[in-house]
Design goal:
It contains 11 helices and 8 strands. By secondary structure, it is of the alpha/beta class. The chain has 2 domains: 49 residues, no CATH class; 140 residues, no CATH class. The chain is elongated, with a radius of gyration of 20 Å.
Length: 199
């Protein structure tokens, strides 16, 4: 019977809700068996994904977006995605609007940051993969957010992100300064920026 779950989920791009499975005639007991056999993973109550589905290293980002479409990949995870650090975070850092109810997942492991509305909205880009999509902050916004949360993520990591961003041919100082204002880090970042640009 678990084979029928796999077929349904393959046809749905590797994801399915409990509601969709029930509508397809799958019993909750069968879902439990598929979980116990390791054929599917539970992302959150009522949302499942196929364990063996051809994807890439960003599938966890898509899982998060499937669980909450307001979630945006931020801070160290976004920094790593943009190749602005060699640091590989053990948890995926995610931003949600301040007024969001508690956001937790069974899988993947996440660190949730609650952003003020104007800081949350700025610099979001959508990335489409063949099996789904996710939201992430662009490079200059990510760098500024790193300084905003430097006490939590570490000043060294924020500085590394800024240095690597400024080394890019696409680096845009005007854009960076706009995000510095939005993320309220103008005073904090100015000395670092001055030293790196003049150096």
């Amino acid at each position: 019977m678990t084979e029928s779950i796999l077929e349904i989920m393959r046809n749905k791009g590797g994801y399915a809700t409990m509601k969709e499975l029930k509508e397809a005639g799958i019993h909750t007991r069968t879902v439990k068996e598929a979980l116990e056999e390791g054929l599917i993973n539970k992302i959150k109550p009522g949302l499942y994904k196929l364990r063996d589905h051809q994807r890439d290293e960003y599938e966890s980002f898509v899982d998060i977006h499937m669980a909450n479409e307001n979630a945006v990949i931020c801070l160290s995870s976004a920094l790593a995605y943009h190749e602005l650090t060699t640091f590989n975070p053990s948890k995926i850092t995610v931003a949600v609007p301040n007024n969001t109810d508690r956001f937790e997942l069974d899988y993947p492991p996440i660190d949730v940051y609650f952003y003020r509305e104007n800081i949350y909205k700025a610099g979001i880009t959508k990335v489409d993969r063949s099996y789904g999509s996710f939201k992430i902050y662009n490079k200059p916004k990510t760098v500024c957010d790193m300084f905003h949360y430097r006490n939590k993520v570490g000043e060294d990591l924020a500085f590394e992100g800024l240095k690597n961003y400024l080394d890019l041919t696409e680096a845009n100082l005007n854009e960076l300064q706009e995000y510095m204002k939005i993320s309220r880090v103008k005073t904090v970042m100015k000395p670092y920026l001055k030293a790196l640009v003049s150096g």
